[in-house]
Amino acid sequence: MREGPVVGAEEGPGDRSSDATPGAGAARPKEPRQRRGTLAQQEARAGLALLSPTLVVVLVMVVLPILWTIVIAFQELRLRNLRTRLFDFEFTIKNFDNVLTSPGFLDALKVTLIYSIVGTVLSIGLGLIAALVVRKPFRGRTLVRASMLLPYVAPVVAVTFVWQIMLNPQLGIVNAIGTDLLGWQDPIPFLEQRTGTLSIFGLDLGVPMALIVVILYQAWRYFPFSFLFILARLQALPGELDEAARVDGATPLQRFWRITLPQLKGVIALLTVLRFIWTFNEFDDIYLLTQGGAGTEVVSVRVFHYLTGRGDIGAAAALSLVLALLLVVLLFLYFRFFVGRVEEADAI
Amino acid sequence: MSRTDVDTGVADRPKTPKATAGRPARPKPPLSREVVETRILGVLKWITIAFFVAATVFPFYYMVELSIRSIEDVALDPGALWPPRGASLAAFGEVLRSVDDGGQGFLVFLKNSGLIAVTSVIVTLVVSILGAYAISRLQFFGRRQVHFLFLAVYLFPAILLAIPLFVFFTRIGLRGSLFGLILVYTSQIVPVTIHMLRNYFDTVPESLEEAAALDGAGRLTIIRRVALPLAMPAIMATSLFVFMIAWNEFLFALLFLVENRENWTVSLGLSQLAGSVEVAKTTLMAGSVILTLPIIVLFFATERLLVEGLTSGAEKG
Questions:
Q1: Residues A174, A180, A181: CA angle, nearest 5 degrees
Q2: Mind giving me the DSSP string for B14-39?
Q3: CA angle, corner A210, sides to A209 and A212, nearest 5?
Q4: CA distance A175 to B237
Q5: CA separation for the pair A192, A204 (Å, rounded)
Q6: Domain containing A145: what range?
Q7: Is residue A100 part of a domain?
Q8: What phi and psi values does residue B146 have, to the nearest 5 degrees?
Q9: Is A80 a domain residue?
């Protein structure tokens, strides 16, 4: 994916200079003296001019705020002393100390990691399966594909509320089916229960119920994204390899493992990175489902609680920086140890 | 699940031999691995499709179903999947009516959400068309770095950005205004839309623009008269994408607007509604339908365009 645009950028200038030369020649007689510099300089100026609104917006609303967060993280800034202390540049590392040693921080870290890793794997796995089953055309495929995208395009507030009500112990359909048809003794408060018991063969296992539900929800809501990209890639695959393998007597499963899956490696690697980043930083879904209760408090929800609950802006900034740094470290490890190998394998 | 598996398997089996028997080249193959796998996968495929469609569509069906039932009815029979009697649109009336009339005032929220989404689309488009055109067509210093910077922005969690923006807008007194929120949305979405539009501009041949340049057209005229019409499909897809993001957004709306009820968006209004005890869950579902419906209609009307716009370039892998 990233290779594509870069290659294009290398080829661009060559094309352009050869094409642009006659244009420049034709334009020359019109302009008596070249006050405005060469064509290349003009182009550079025009490029920056056209890009300037974007640059201003992104610099002012994204880059500066990120830098400012770093400053705030070292200030003792609270909501109530915002007016007086904002430009009071006494720096301290107290925020980091507070945030990192506070009870619950390590739990939040653990929950964030479990949530992002399992959520990423599940959403990509489901996306892959969904893409494989609708790969070949059939009647009504467009409708099936569109309906599979619904969870992803629908507003987060609406879908979290539907899930809440579906799982509600008194009113929800899941518990109604569970108690009426499946013989559950009591309704299960899926989103309020930190530890649920799962009976398998007479064994009662304690499972982190709310966390599991939140992860399943996230797989449900975000598999369409993987589905979309894997399907696009699947449909662009050349058919010859698959056909050749079929002629050679490879069974459908063999063809999937040996022919199709290796060709999807690139898009899956890309999706892994994107989904991991987004799941790791996820806030809306968990906040709306559980408010971070019942053992589902991920770091970003914790940041929000520092910000609005306690009004401790400094601590919120410090914790959000910790979150961002951690992500950078994890991504670095991923690229260092996994992607290198994938690319080597692709080269062969 | 396993039960349906067996049933469908049995039901489908009689068909398969007929199909294979029709082919002359393979006279009744023994149950080779190929045949077994093809049959099992053929059945599994339809079960999987049915499972996915049910899992994705059911919650939305359930949302609509609850919104037209009364809360007493739901409490009596939570498992009912078909509104038997007394189905009514009363909940919608309650949600949409203004607060003075004893409703929840969602009509105003709809207006706010629409205003925010449409303005975000316009501002984002203007900014990102210019930017994407520059990155795609023009040579200038820092072109590639800019692109990388935009993508790097996405590493940072929204909640990290929310903190300084919250402080900043509180301090300058713009928190609670729709204007501030639109600015935030634009800045958050522009990096993606630039990427989408740039991919498209890259596929449009430059020769037409060069012809226009030879005829004496200036840079902005070329963009407006030549590049824009050619890029219309991508621009439509991008607009829809921006509209959906702005319409659905929750975190910044919550942080910026929560104290200012007349400026609430539908998402925010609905989430605040959920907090109060006296609001029935069926009313909540009516609100959810109102929030979801515009997006679903828009999505089904433009599905192909949107999907192609989102995944353009993904085929390259």
A1: 85
A2: THHHHHHHH-SSS-S--S-HHHHHHH
A3: 65
A4: 40
A5: 19
A6: 105-149+210-311
A7: no
A8: -55, -45
A9: no
CA dihedral B253, B258, B259, B262 (to 10 degrees): 70
> CB of A178 within 8 A of CB of A187?
yes
Whether A159 is in a domain gets the answer: no
Phi and psi of A312, rounded to 5°?
-95, 85
Which among B75, B315, B317 is the nearest to A170, CB-wise?
B75
Size of interface A-B (CB pairs under 8 A): 318
Provide the domain count of chain A.
Answer: 1
Find residues 7-66 of chain A whose CB sits inside 8 Å of chain B. 8-9, 12-13, 15-16, 19-20, 23, 26, 40, 43-51, 53-55, 57-58, 60-66
Q: What are phi and psi of B103, to 5 degrees?
A: -100, -160
- The A residues from 247 to 286 touching B (CB cutoff 8 Å) are 249, 251-253, 263, 266-267, 277, 280-281, 283-284
Closest CA to B215 of A26, A33, A46, A19: A26
Put simply, whether A206 touches B (Cβ < 8 Å) is no
Residue A155, CA atoms < 13 Å, CB-side half-sphere: 33
Under 8 Å between Cβ of B157 and A62: no
Of the candidates A34, A19, A46, which has an alpha carbon nearest to the alpha carbon of residue B141?
A46
Of B155, B158, B307, the CB nearest to A328: B155
Q: With a threshold of 0.80, does the pTM exceed it?
A: yes
* Residue A270, domain CATH: 1.10.3720.10
**Which among B78, B267, B295 has CB closest to A171?**
B78
**Closest CB to B79 among A144, A173, A228:** A173
Is residue A221 a part of any domain in this protein? yes
How confident is the model over A144-153, as pLDDT tens digits? 999 999 999 9
What are the angstrom distances between the C-alpha of B243 and each of B236, B237, B248, B249? 11, 10, 8, 10
Instruction: Report the distance separating Cα B109 and Cα B157, nearest Å.
Output: 27
Collapsing DSSP to helix, strand or coil, B205 comes out as coil
Distance CA A330, CA A337 (A): 11
Rounded distance between C-alpha atoms, residue A119 and residue A223, angstroms: 9
CATH class of the B99-316 domain in this structure: mainly alpha
For each successive 10 residues of chain B (317 residues), what is the average pLDDT? 40 44 54 83 93 94 89 80 74 84 85 94 93 84 72 80 88 83 90 85 82 83 85 87 92 89 91 82 90 92 77 53
Distance CA A197, CA A176 (A): 19
Question: CA A309 → CA A265, A301, A302, distances in Å?
Answer: 43, 11, 10
Task: Report yes or no: B55 and B267 within 8 Å, Cβ to Cβ.
Answer: no
Specify the amino acid at residue A242.
D
* Token pair recorded at residue A113: 């990691």
Q: What is the pLDDT of residue B281?
A: 85
What is the Cβ-side half-sphere exposure of residue B313, based on CA atoms within 13 angstroms? 20
List pLDDT tens digits, range A260-271. Answer: 999 999 899 989
Domain limits, CATH 1.10.3720.10, in chain B:
99-316
